[in-house]
Write a structure and sequence with these properties.
9 helices; 5-stranded mixed beta sheet; about 35% helix; single chain; about 280 residues; about 25% strand; alpha/beta
């Protein structure tokens, strides 16, 4: 009840999800708080917030449910495939181009598996939101999360042929100051590797976006240059709508694709089958 209330944002929503009355939900949470001797949630009829004790207890509560699920999976027959609800979060473009194509196969092969895919370019708190797996392309900060490197993620600069006809192609990183560079919102620099060392290069443009899909679309439309993962632009390069733009003596910094888990729990069948199929799609 506690975990569901946190994920749904209110006790009433948790009660509806668990098919309980509001009074029963309140009593269950009160019983848990009484047993622990602390208050876990500040709550009103419409909203709730974690207390400091609730924040400390949440990862342990999630671990308890995960351990229960692992135990049941161990005892269940395997011929039915993976079971349960798998919550995954990933960036919008990666989800659209690399995850959605495998979802139908996974659901057909595993009749008792359900998948909830959150496509979000923002960093999601996977512990608080109850996510089982985050697929991220970023330098990972030290944290209590567990990460597994899945694949390299080479990047290049791309442009539409129409843009290059109008403005020419940059040859050096210094030339980028004279070009429209499409970036994430509030990003002011692109990262390169020059002579084996990382270098941050200031860039600017009249368009930015909170999503790769946004500036990928702008790049295809000829608005400017974009620094993209190779798989981001794979289809657009194949049909001639984008071309790579090499830079002399410099290359964009590569960021690996990572699978991030909330804890060192046993890898459940639902996680294992998803990661195996996803890695195969990246190969």
């Amino acid at each position: 009840m506690f975990i569901c209330a946190v994920r749904k944002g209110s006790l009433s929503a948790a009660a509806r999800h668990l098919k309980l009355t509001a009074m029963s939900a309140t009593r269950r949470l009160a019983t848990l708080e009484e047993e622990l001797g602390v208050r876990l949630l500040h709550r009103t009829s419409r909203s709730l917030a974690l207390t400091p004790e609730g924040e400390a207890f949440l990862p342990f509560a999630s671990e308890m449910l995960d351990t229960q699920e692992a135990a049941l999976a161990t005892l269940s027959p395997t011929e039915g495939g993976a079971t349960g609800l798998l919550r995954v979060t990933a960036t919008a473009t990666l989800g659209r181009k690399r995850i959605m194509p495998i979802v139908n196969e996974l659901l057909e092969e595993n009749p008792r598996l359900r998948i909830d895919l959150d496509l979000n370019d923002a960093m999601v708190d996977i512990v608080a939101s109850g996510v089982d797996l985050a697929i991220r392309i970023a330098p990972l900060k030290d944290s209590g999360l567990i990460a597994r490197r899945l694949a390299d993620n080479p990047k290049l600069i791309y442009a539409a042929p129409a843009y290059l006809e109008r403005h020419g192609a940059p040859r050096t990183i210094e030339d980028l100051a004279n070009h429209e560079c499409l970036t994430f919102t509030n990003f002011t620099h692109w990262q390169f590797v020059v002579d084996g060392k990382e270098r941050s290069v200031p860039v600017s443009g009249r368009f930015s976006s909170s999503s790769v899909d946004g500036f990928l679309s702008a790049c295809v439309s000829g608005f400017g240059l974009a620094q993209l993962s190779a798989w981001d632009a794979e289809d657009e390069v194949a049909n001639g709508r984008l071309v790579p733009v090499p830079i002399e003596d410099a290359s964009p910094r590569d960021l690996a694709i990572w699978a991030v888990f909330p804890s060192r729990r046993q890898v459940l069948p639902k996680l294992r089958v998803f990661l195996e199929r996803f890695q195969k799609s990246l190969a």
